[in-house]
Amino acid sequence: MGEESSNARLIAARMRTYDPSDSAQEGAWCQEVVLRGALKQGTPDIIRYWDLVDAIDGTESQSVFCSLLDSMRFEDDSGQYEATYNALWSFPPERFGPWMVAALPSRLVGDKFQEHAGSILCGLINEQNKLDLRWFNNSLAETDEASRAVIMAFIQRNESSGWFEDGKGKIRPLSFDVK
């Protein structure tokens, strides 16, 4: 495909706008963000991915949240997904915690998502994110045993040497009054 054709495709894609908070447009946004997330940095289409991700303000649905997770399809992203991590953190704690706990078990099965999970969850041990940690821990306590086991195995592996070394013991299935 020539450069002119690629540029024309990019211009057409950028003219197509979706509002991910509009339920009528949500499906199209979800499909496109997952598709565009598979593109390597340095390609013109990655700009479209970033445009889609930048539209997130944290008021969107759980489907949008999960599509953001599904859009991260490369293990070593060289910073490509930083905007995606930030978009996920734009969701309020009462959504982020339960939705992340629900989404993690199936994504942690393979090695591909492990680095992304670490990048996202390491924010929980930051002192500024106490409410996020409470909601996550509460959701972890309330989820089914099999899901909790998958998530905790990942957390514990990364506490001894990895993402959560500095916050060992902070991410645990504990119920708190989060209201």
Kindly state the percentage of residues in helix. 55-70%
Task: Calculate Rg over CA atoms.
Answer: 17 Å
Tally of separate domains: 2
The number of distinct β-strands equals 0
Largest sheet: none
How would you classify the helix and strand content by structural class?
Answer: mainly alpha
Strand content: under 5%
Helical stretch count? 9
Chain-averaged pLDDT: 84
Task: List the helices and strands in order.
Answer: HHHHHHHHH
Question: What are the segments in which pLDDT stays under 50 over at least 5 consecutive residues?
Answer: none
Which of globular, elongated, flat, extended, rod-shaped describes the shape? globular
User: Span from first to last CA?
Assistant: 54 Å
Overview of this protein structure:
The structure is a single chain. By secondary structure, this protein is mostly helical. It folds into two domains: 1-91; 93-179. It is built from nine helices and no strands. α2 packs parallel to α4 and α6 (93-108) packs across α9 (145-160). The N and C termini lie far apart (54 Å). The mean pLDDT is 84.
